[in-house]
UniProtKB/TrEMBL annotation:
Single GO cellular component term: periplasmic space
Alphabetical list of InterPro entries matching this protein: Bact_solute-bd_prot1, SBP
Residues of the signal peptide: 1-23
Chain coiled-coil ranges: none
Intracellular or extracellular location(s): Periplasm
Pfam families in the cross-refs: SBP_bac_1
Protein's name in the database: Extracellular solute-binding protein
Keyword presence, DNA-binding: no
Presence of the UniProt keyword Signal in the record: yes
Length: 436
């Protein structure tokens, strides 16, 4: 090797070391769901575009993630530069000043392309405080063959009265076919996610404008009464133990006539490798009662920057890439359009290739039907569709869910469950200072 060549190679090596030495490392805390795991496998695109930024991942189960990021952000520990948070946490933390504004993302990010329903839930006093990676609502998934056999046609926008009629008509307990499958497992994110959204369409609400609980209202009684009737008369056995995963399995096994749950389930129930009824599934909007609100929820997993981060610019660069239109193209090229993160951008639903995905249109309609800033028929002091965006809600929501699950199990009546929910919620809200 000549001296000149050796010198050139040495210079290149020194340059490479210098680049590596100046690369900034950001730590991203995320949830161990399929879309986030897929993103980690597609980092070559980011690395090529941003060789000056290295990403270190901390991937955790959902409950552990919430605990870790909540502790870190509340103490400004600075352990993470990017956090994956839900639609529940975002407005609470934004109001506390715990999140960095993303209003200055580059123009090509096209913030106006974000779906309004999702963007509104992530905006606090005009500041975008988190960027959505993945969004969902809920809708009716139903067996087209059973609906036809019952002599009924599912409307695109059914009422609760139609759901009751169809559930009765499709139930054949001797054949282990149940007209409707709904969440019964206790939890603020399990049965109360469904019941809170259902209650909105009945004109019910968690609190009035003075933060007084409303479980003693006729609207809540009507909601719980109809829910218990549907589950008891037309639902599968073991209802109090059934959450999302249990009902998904029942539907895939052909045991549910209808299932009202997350739009993300559509890809699973229509996958012939997983579902015995993949070619017999239809979709409709979540039901309503003609009061202006449908019984569907709204959720997103989002990327946000804690105020304690010392690497805000690099964190913003990563978020702009991970939640961009270009990233959707990267996923589509590798995994196919049906597997891109759904529910965040208008342009995705205008894409002719994505429009071929059988559940794309109904997912968009469902998301657009939910408004976290005006979730109920009457005015309320909170935001959030299937949750109330206050720190106390996790505990209160789960406690109320336990009361309603007990009513489903038959260990208490609807009236007793509602009275207990009213009492415990009043007690906790008084303790927290909302009620004087």
């Amino acid at each position: 090797m000549t001296l000149t060549l050796r010198a050139l190679l040495g210079a290149c090596a020194v340059g490479a070391l210098a680049t590596a030495a100046t690369a900034e490392t950001i730590t991203v805390a995320t949830v161990n769901n399929g879309d986030m795991i897929r993103m980690q496998a597609l980092m070559a695109d980011f690395n090529e575009k941003h060789p000056d930024i290295e990403v270190e991942w901390v991937t955790l189960e959902e409950n552990v993630l919430r605990q870790r990021v909540t502790t870190d952000i509340a103490t400004q520990g600075g352990q993470f530069d990017v956090m994956t948070i839900g639609t529940y946490e975002a407005p609470i933390w934004g109001k506390q000043g715990w999140l960095v504004s993303l209003n200055d993302l580059p123009a090509e990010y096209d913030v106006d392309d974000l779906l309004p329903a999702i963007r509104n839930g992530l905006t606090v006093e005009g500041e975008l405080i988190a960027a959505p990676f993945y969004g969902e609502s809920s809708m009716v998934m139903y067996r087209t063959d059973l609906m036809e056999a019952a002599g009924l046609d599912m409307p695109e926008a059914p009422t609760w009265e139609f759901i009751k009629e169809a559930a009765a008509a499709m139930t054949d307990k001797d054949a282990e076919i149940y007209g409707i499958c709904l969440r019964g497992k206790a939890g603020w994110g399990e049965n109360m996610a469904f019941l809170s959204a259902m209650a909105n369409s009945y004109g019910a609400k968690w609190f009035d404008m003075d933060w007084q609980p409303q479980f003693d209202s006729p609207e809540w009684k009507a909601t719980l009464t109809d829910y218990l009737m549907l589950m008891t008369e037309y639902g599968p056995p073991g209802g109090p133990n059934n959450g999302f995963n249990e009902n998904l399995a029942l539907f895939q096994q052909g045991k549910c006539g209808m299932w009202i749950d997350a739009t993300v389930a559509a890809s699973f129930v229509t996958n012939p490798a997983e579902s015995t009824v993949a070619d017999k599934v239809g979709f409709a909007l979540a039901p309503d009662n003609g009061l202006g609100k449908r019984g569907n929820w709204l959720w997103a997993w989002n990327l946000a920057i804690p105020a304690g981060s010392q690497k805000v610019d690099a964190a913003k660069t990563f978020i702009a890439w991970a939640t961009s239109k270009d990233y959707l193209e990267v996923v589509a090229a590798e995994e196919g359009w049906a597997n891109v993160p759904p529910g965040t951008r208008t342009s995705l639903y205008e894409n002719p290739e994505y429009q071929k995905v059988p559940f794309a249109a109904m997912t968009l309609e469902s998301i657009n039907a939910a408004d976290p800033t005006k979730p109920t028929v009457d005015e309320v002091p909170y935001v959030g569709v299937q949750f109330v965006a206050i720190p106390e809600f996790q505990g209160i929501g789960t406690a109320v869910g336990q009361q309603f699950s007990a009513a489903l199990a038959g260990t208490s009546s609807a009236d007793d469950a509602l009275a207990a929910a009213q009492a415990l919620t009043t007690r906790e809200m008084t303790r927290a200072g909302y009620i004087k």
